[in-house]
Amino acid sequence: MTITQAVSPGTLTRPGRRFTLSAQTLDSPVTPNPVFREWFAEQRRTNRYEVRRIPFRDLVGWRFSDSTGNLVHDSGRFFSVEGLQVRAEWEGHAASWSQPIINQPEIGILGIVVKEFDGVLHCLMQAKMEPGNLETVQLSPTVQATRSNYTGVHKGARVNYIEYFAPPRTGSRVLFDSLQSEQGSWFLRKRNRNMVVEALGPVPAHEDFVWLTLGQIHQLLRESNVVNMDARTVLSLIPSYADEGPPLHSMEHLLNRLTEIKAHRELVQTSMPLAAVQNWRRTEDAIAHDSGHHFTVIAASVAAANREVTRWTQPLLAPAEQGLSAFLVRRIGGVPHLLAHARSEAGVLDVAELGPTVQCQPGRALTLPLPRRPRYLDLVLRADPGTLLYDTVQSEEGGRFHHAGNRYVLMEVGGEFPVDVPGDFLWVTAGQLSDLLRHSNYLNIEARTLLSALRAAWARGGAYAR
């Protein structure tokens, strides 16, 4: 099954032509696919790492605050695990709960350097170890660094290629640049700077980095746990430049609907001591919910050969189960649209962001009464494999989460699926989502991964194909 969209070369801007050519280039003499496979396998084989769960008392440089019970770093930097009280109300439904949440107020840099080789743009990608990854070494952006990392708070090695992103940036020019959110259920108002920059001169080589075309990366996105979350969110900034056809709703209508939702929903977030959160208990090696659902906060000891710091300990958040994030895709007037859901999560910065049609931990969701289950969950769980344009498990942020995997799905529905949908759902095109990504806090991290996945399904002939 395919969803086709034509790319009209005559209508493309020069940046459009360059990125479209890169996306259509599925192999490259710069790094041929077999050479990449051998290099990546060697990275996973030879980069020594050890991730071991430990009791909280064995954390080095971390402690529970005597006054609040918050789990904090001695430097006062990096991040902390705190308590959050949440009160939410919309459409006659009200809820209140408290939970642990990661507070990391500093804004890091996630950035990809691009450069032309033989007239084709290539992306400089890094084989990076993260302690919580499902496959510990994954393909990451050129730079993936917190402010503490690249300003030297960790007293480790210098971050490679940071000079292409941090001022004065004399060796590069910025192509895409915006602040984007991260997991709203686990982070408190967390944002990172997502950037794509073009190198203006020679780029020094490094054994842990490799040049790949967008087409090569898109092929890797069809595989589980190869391209990491930070790379996926940066890649989502790069438009497909496809000629989509007329959307169901104008951009003005979409922005108005999202503004109305934010104005009418109530979401009150109040920081509280971690020791005071209700229905959570702390043992010597875990902070867990009484139900066994949601997530657990654990401690880990990490040793890695190819990181700025080679040995450390830290807290990690471990989800209770694999998540599910799915967009329903439907032709409307012959134009492919995705059904986005305006989601309010515990730590979101601005009340609501557009997320996938379905986003949940399905095991827990199925224990809820029918009226409280995520709408369209049963439809996705019962999907005919022939309707799935994309169905792949991907890791989430391995620097803060332990073995956090989501099943990402693009499911095509036919003309029998109604165009009229509940008020917190919106039909949008991929191009409209790309336009929103020029700005901050419109699309959540799961929606951005699926937007990258949609482009991964872009075939050489200009078709979204399974």
Description of the structure:
This protein is of the alpha+beta class. It has a domain at 251-268 and 321-465: Nucleoside Triphosphate Pyrophosphohydrolase (Alpha-Beta Complex). 18% of the residues lie in helices and 36% in strands. It has 10 helices and 26 strands. Strands 7, 8, 9, 10, 11, 12 and 13 form a 7-stranded mixed sheet that branches. Helix 4 packs across helix 10. The longest helix is centred in the first third of the chain and has 14 residues, at 33-46. The relative contact order is 0.19. The model is unreliable at 1-11 and 459-466 (pLDDT under 50).
Please give a quick description of this structure.
By secondary structure, the chain is an alpha+beta fold.
Mind telling me the CATH class of the domain at 251-268 and 321-465? Alpha Beta
Give the termini distance in whole angstroms.
6 Å
**Rg from Cα:** 22 Å
Structural class determined from secondary elements: alpha+beta
CATH fourth-tier homologous superfamily of the domain at 251-268 and 321-465? EvaA sugar 2,3-dehydratase subunit
Key words describing this protein structure:
single chain, 466 residues, alpha+beta, Nucleoside Triphosphate Pyrophosphohydrolase, seven-stranded mixed beta sheet, 26 strands, 18% helix, 36% strand, disordered N terminus, disordered C terminus
